[in-house]
Specification:
Distance between the termini: 8 Å
Mean pLDDT: 89
Number of strands: 0
Strand content: under 5%
Largest sheet: none
Order of helices and strands: HHH
Number of helices: 3
Shape: elongated
Number of domains: 1
Helix content: 55-70%
Low-confidence stretches: none
């Protein structure tokens, strides 16, 4: 069961790269100009990269019965 909650190092690096690209886009646009909705995926992906816990991965692994 614990394997559902832990992302691989490759997935964590992917989350980090995608999150940093979103943050870069927000920064280049301007923090006051970018819509607040852009902060949600950027924050969740950064959290997933740091902690290794990604709710989307947990649900996908559970749905496809992946070990």
């Amino acid at each position: 069961m614990k394997s559902y909650f832990q992302s691989s190092p490759a997935a964590r690096l992917f989350f980090l790269i995608v999150s940093l690209n979103i943050w870069l886009g927000i920064w280049l646009t301007g923090f006051g100009v970018a819509h607040w909705w852009l902060y949600i995926p950027a924050g969740f992906l950064l959290f997933a990269a740091v902690s290794g816990f990604c709710p989307g991965m947990v649900m996908t692994r559970w749905l496809f019965k992946e070990k």
